[in-house]
Design brief:
single chain; mainly beta; globular
Length: about 230
Amino acid sequence: MLWLLACLPLAASAETSSAAPPPAQRTAENRAAAHSATPRPFAARYRLEVKGWPAAYVDHRLSHEGDYWESLMETSIRIARGSERSRFLIQSGQARSIYYASGYSLLGVGDSYQLGAETLTTHPDRQTALFMLSRRVIGGDCAAAPCRITYLDHKGREESLEVRTLGEGSVSLPAGTFEAIRVEAVEGDKPDRRLVFHFHPELPGLLLSADYHRGGERPSHLALSELTVLE
């Protein structure tokens, strides 16, 4: 079940308004003048399809909890469940991980993991890394040349991806049609495995879609099915 969550961010950032519409779609020209990388709380639901597994829904919430931000992903199917939670600070415009926890259960058997601030001093956890990557992409990084993203997995092991922006355009999803930034991420030693994301241009940390490709196949697909922006 951890793999189901890991394939989302980096195989791997109030009051609730009911059915609030997503932010207005904007062109690249007028988006450049906006504070698009400013965090905004949201609640999202994704539909996840993984080859060999029943379809599942993943709930993702980015919230502002006093001094820190929290990104929480949770999913469950009849025989399994899993979750990831990350807390990070934003200081001088930069995100810094301070806590990470994840857990899974499959047929009643599972495990849990935690990373504290002392472990996350050099590299972020993967939930925070997702938020950081989306902000960089929104800001225009990874377009002229690939970016290297280094983060810690759920066990604190260092992982790296080569990331490049593929372009911008609209994408049609169950939640509606959105302007999106398309990004490809590849593991340096596994070029046949890649992730293709569509990021929202105004909501850092939100995935519009994510596809995992391996050996010419697409074993998993994730798409946004519901979105509520929390003000």
